Amino acid sequence: MKKTKVSSIGERALISRLSEIFNAPEGKERGREGILVGAGSDDCAVLDLKGEDCLVVTTDMLHRTTDFPVEMTPWQMGWMSAAVNLSDIAAMGAEPTGILMAIGMPADTEIAFVEELAKGIQACAEFCETAVVGGDLDTHAELTITGTALGKVKKSQLLLRKGAKPGDLVCITGYTGSAGAALKAIQSKKPVSETVLKALFEPIPRTREARILAESGAVTSMMDTSDGLAMSLYDLARQSKVGFRLREAALPIHPEVREFASGPGELLELALYTGGDFELIFTVNPARLKKVQNICNLTIIGECTKYETGIVLESPECRLTIIEQRGYQQLKAETAD
Amino acid sequence: MKKTKVSSIGERALISRLSEIFNAPEGKERGREGILVGAGSDDCAVLDLKGEDCLVVTTDMLHRTTDFPVEMTPWQMGWMSAAVNLSDIAAMGAEPTGILMAIGMPADTEIAFVEELAKGIQACAEFCETAVVGGDLDTHAELTITGTALGKVKKSQLLLRKGAKPGDLVCITGYTGSAGAALKAIQSKKPVSETVLKALFEPIPRTREARILAESGAVTSMMDTSDGLAMSLYDLARQSKVGFRLREAALPIHPEVREFASGPGELLELALYTGGDFELIFTVNPARLKKVQNICNLTIIGECTKYETGIVLESPECRLTIIEQRGYQQLKAETAD
């Protein structure tokens, strides 16, 4: 076992091993008093700020070859680097309070490139009504950007992956599968509209929707869909101990993505198993549905069931199939994209 | 100018350009309300927590080839990655409240390696009485670790690079030049003691000393010496608008480093112009010197002068020479190490 490579166990299994090292330091509790949610279980860690607020914080590392399609402009790389982190802040129902950017770049990078990158970062931070507060610059063979975003939220409004109950409705903002369709179009050199490409190149963190949803008091669990809808369902299921039944006909898919897909099989593949969409998936107490229905662009796509029922998709003909646990995962040879 | 490479202007000049993009978004102030200290000027950014506390946060990216000598164990790489960030928290006089670690690694990295790395991170976090609260795992050609550390400090106790006044005494914790001597020893394959090697491989963030110093009320400015003593003096000078006169005979140099150096010239080079020591350099109001004198291991190495006087070193024969503005700097061809 000692010689096992990380690629053979995948990102989530490795996270779980490392979380054990970080969370269980020989039973010592010193230095852990303020930690409400630690490493591994949610989009962000949550720290107690003593008063009514808590601090949420997240970090994400991106690399040029693996995370930025060659068609992306430096501005878009900057935007994306900020967006992945701000989307995690949104996933907790929090309001962003700052972002830090560590940038490693080849020594022969042109200053104009770095300035465009910075402008993209700044534009995304501004869009989310926050600011770049710090960072680090470093030389590195490949462009590498690690962002860290901070946010705050009232403890009473904090949204976790845990909290969904059987009977809750499952909702999603925006569309699913658009970023995946854009990536597929690029890889297969098929034409696709600017709108679909933008979903991949300039994903919009749902920070505004997140705040409205958190304030509504109707949401029982939430996360973002950046690793794909299926992976998100499995993460919510594991933390909340629920199952899910989704209705295929209800999945919000952009008309141009429907047009792009070669058939219903590919469409479903895009909608469920591709990453890159920065939408929010969340569960709503049905008694409080009215509180969220008209406050943001959301679609009800199914409901929470008992854990034992698993995660299933209901076709228009009422046939049930199992939604598989796959999607975007780092460190794994068999990732979907 | 547009085609200029980043290597031609160096880290500090590039930081200053990017800070302009991040700090002046077309005059908009939205999202900037809580920022007490923004990108670029200090070891950490400082955010207002509304109550009496403020939040300090910093991020640092390390790469295997450039930041970890080949002699380092994975445990030491982990320790170091946590230590660079926790040292920045100490530099602000703050108490660490959590650390996040984004790790990019080759897919064929052995799990045992990653686990050792994690244990080193955990050990350093525990030493500083804090914990790893989050992170990210990623595949990457070269091992890359970006840490982010958070801390808190009462606004009244926050220590910045700004605040030193002419007449203040300049102090430093521990020794200067030890990490530089260790690196030199490795590069030139000269033997050196375990103690000196440890200064480079397992640097100790001065988080405890920092808290005591901040609470004393006697310290007027502070930062860490990770980029070298000379660079730190220039950073303090720029922010505080003071000059410095250091006494050569007062510089605290480890006996084994004195023994290692080939002569007084090399000794001074190590003490002033090499990075990697994670000591605190700070200025003290002389009227309050007694408040700090016996609370931690410190050495008075000189005093603050008027800005116009520059940064000078006084030899045992009372001869003054200018301390140069060089040391450890990323993105710069002519870095000292």
TrEMBL record, chains A, B:
Gene: thiL
Binding sites annotated in the UniProt record for Mg(2+) 1: 59-60, 136
Species in which this protein is naturally found: Methanosarcina lacustris Z-7289
Name by which UniProt lists this protein: Thiamine-monophosphate kinase
InterPro entries attached to this UniProt entry: PurM-like_C_dom, PurM-like_C_sf, PurM-like_N, PurM-like_N_sf, ThiL-like
Domain PurM-like N-terminal: 42-153
Domain PurM-like C-terminal, chain residue ranges per copy: 165-306
UniProt keyword list: ATP-binding, Kinase, Magnesium, Metal-binding, Nucleotide-binding, Thiamine biosynthesis, Transferase
Amino acids binding Mg(2+) 2: 60, 88
Gene3D superfamilies, per database record: PurM-like C-terminal domain, PurM-like, N-terminal domain
EC number: 2.7.4.16
Family affiliation: Belongs to the thiamine-monophosphate kinase family.
Keyword Ubl conjugation: no
GO molecular function: ATP binding; magnesium ion binding; thiamine-phosphate kinase activity
